[in-house]
Structures are given as C-alpha cells and as structure tokens.
C-alpha cells in the first residue's frame, strides 16, 4: 500500500502595510521549499483580489510525516520568523488526497 499524499493549506491575513513584504517572503519560501524538500511535490500561492491581505498557500507532500514536518524545516522556520510580525491570522488545515 502506498502512502497517502497530504495537502497543507494555509490561510494568512496580513497587515495591509506589509502585503508587499509578505508576498516577497512567501514566494521566496515556496521556491526554497520546492528546491530543498524532496518530499514536497509542489507549492501554490493565491492572493484574494477582493480582500487585500488575504493569501492562501498550499503545499503537496508525499506523506503524513513530510506534511507534519513542513514547518520544522529550515525554510519553514525562516519563513515563520520573517512574516510573524505582520501576520494577523494564520489557519492551517491538512487534507488527504485520494
């Protein structure tokens, strides 16, 4: 039996004056994760055009363990540290992909 892939979906609300800095940080982090994490199958980033400051990120991981460890990687820790001062809300959900 093969491991079930996991999708980590995260919604962020960012202070309006820090949207550009968050955008730069999230794209840099996504590039680093895709480059450095062999268990990551891809990252997508969306920005709500009708609600400035709302972002959705999704990352597809090979299995439960990789998804659970995503925020403990060097890239994950660096991203969290960089954006913590201007994130008003962060909600993380994990989804099974069948």
Distance between the termini: 13 Å
Strand order of the largest sheet: 2-3-1-4
- Class based on secondary structure composition and strand pairing: alpha+beta
Major sheet summary line? 4 strands, antiparallel
* CATH C-level class: Alpha Beta
* Percent range for β-strand residues: 35-45%
Number of strands: 4
Rg for CA atoms:
13 Å
Uncertain residue segments = none
Quickly count the helices: 3
Whole-number tally of structural domains: 1
What CATH architecture label applies?
A: 2-Layer Sandwich
Percent of residues in helical segments?
25-40%
Mean pLDDT: 92
Q: Judging from the principal axes of the Cα atoms, what is the shape? A: globular
Order of helices and strands: EHEEHHE
GO molecular function, one term: monooxygenase activity
Protein name: Quinol monooxygenase YgiN
Domain ABM: 6-95
InterPro entries: ABM_dom, Dimeric_a/b-barrel
């Amino acid at each position: 039996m093969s491991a079930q892939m996991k999708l980590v979906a995260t919604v962020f609300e960012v202070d309006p004056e820090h949207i550009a800095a968050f955008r730069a940080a999230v794209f840099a982090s996504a590039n680093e994760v895709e480059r450095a994490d062999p268990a990551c199958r891809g990252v997508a980033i969306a920005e709500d055009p009708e609600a400035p400051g709302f972002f959705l990120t999704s990352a597809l991981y090979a299995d439960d363990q990789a998804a659970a460890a995503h925020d403990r990687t060097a890239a994950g820790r660096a991203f969290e540290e960089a954006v913590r001062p201007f994130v008003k809300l962060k909600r993380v959900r994990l989804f099974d992909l069948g």
